[in-house]
Design goal:
about 325 residues; Aminopeptidase; globular; seven-stranded mixed sheet
């Protein structure tokens, strides 16, 4: 049985996601508020006893210079990954929404590992194509690092770190680096440091308004500030939901790195995750595979030094509803 809900009536979806082993904050209504989408739809799939067995939260985005839309279920749908019946019901429900909203394609990227060959076969049978890129071109990273923190003490967590990292963290505390939680008033400084960090690492930060939406509208958003002598020298933002904490955004004053405030914040975030009883600390994406020949291997080494383990998801799946229009739109955008 399928049910559709709007963003103001998604309490059951949020609760289901929060308690699911594959929970992800992007499959909640609060992520829709962060993304500031006017068009958001929640799909609920129930069994005969009306118990929820799967959900999918869709963002609708208008394709520039056209009358058409894309549907995207970030890190969704969420269901028992071996339950092909529920997955099929959710996708069929999305097709109905596509018909009603003039959408030409559906994109999904569930947290399902590439080892699940049955799921890959099912998506192929249903007409999906898959993008298995391992760079940052996908909406969510396909390859990432996650730390299993189940049952760990803070001392046991520290023992998982590389010895150099442990030295840096202890040195930070001795040299007076301190932690406090951030507020909206800290956002201009955060954005300034994000611009510095982005300039160094080759990415463009989000707008100041986006980060404000993030910390004020996302359920479980965290904002951590590292200070030296009362001055902000580094900051991070996290997401917390269900069994997991995600490290989402990080930045620092590029002239104030000598006391390792970034490593200090990683330690403090993960300690907080342990205190809150989470099972996983998600360090999110990297590029490529953990091979020394990879020019981006440095980020792999850093996340490995935090005791995290490499994971590979299936990828980003596309189901095209109107192939000729989809092809024409993609061709149009190549010339704009």
């Amino acid at each position: 049985m399928i049910e559709f809900v709007d963003i103001n009536h998604a309490q059951e979806i949020n609760e289901f996601v929060r308690n699911h082993p594959k929970c992800h904050f992007e499959q909640t209504s609060s992520w829709g508020l962060v993304k500031n989408y006017d068009n958001w739809t929640g799909i609920i799939c129930r069994d005969e006893s009306k118990k929820i067995k799967g959900v999918m939260c869709l963002l609708h985005s208008k394709i520039n210079h056209t009358k058409y839309y894309r549907l995207y279920a970030p890190r969704g749908p969420i269901f028992d990954e071996n339950d092909s019946e529920t997955f099929t019901e959710l996708i069929n429900a999305a097709k109905k929404i596509a018909d009603e909203t003039n959408a030409i394609v559906l994109k999904i990227d569930p947290m399902i590992y590439e080892t699940n060959k049955d799921f890959l076969a099912l998506t192929k049978k249903m007409g999906f194509t898959v993008n298995t890129a391992t760079d940052f071109s996908l909406s969510n990273p396909r390859v990432s690092y996650v730390t299993d923190i189940r049952g760990l003490s803070q001392e046991e967590l520290m023992s998982k770190y590389h010895r150099t990292l442990r030295t840096h963290i202890r040195g930070s505390e001795r040299k007076g680096v301190t932690l406090r939680m951030g507020t909206v008033e800290d956002l201009p400084r955060f954005h300034e440091m994000m611009s510095q960090t982005g300039g160094k690492n080759g990415f463009k930060p989000h707008s100041l308004k986006y980060y404000e939406n993030y910390i004020t509208k996302l359920e479980g958003a965290g904002f951590y500030i590292a200070e030296e002598n009362g001055e902000t020298v580094a900051a991070t933002m996290t997401a917390e939901l269900g069994n997991r904490m995600w490290y989402m955004y990080g930045c620092s004053d590029q002239k104030r790195l000598q006391n390792h405030p970034n490593e200090f914040l990683q330690w403090k975030m993960q300690c907080h995750a342990i205190e809150m009883g989470y099972d996983w600390f998600d360090l999110r994406g990297v590029e490529g595979f953990p091979e020394e020949s990879n020019p981006k291997y440095g980020l792999h080494r850093y996340k490995q030094s935090l005791g995290a383990e490499f994971q590979v998801y299936c990828g980003e799946f596309y189901l095209v509803f109107k192939p000729l229009i989809y092809k024409s739109v993609n061709l149009l955008h190549k010339f704009l």
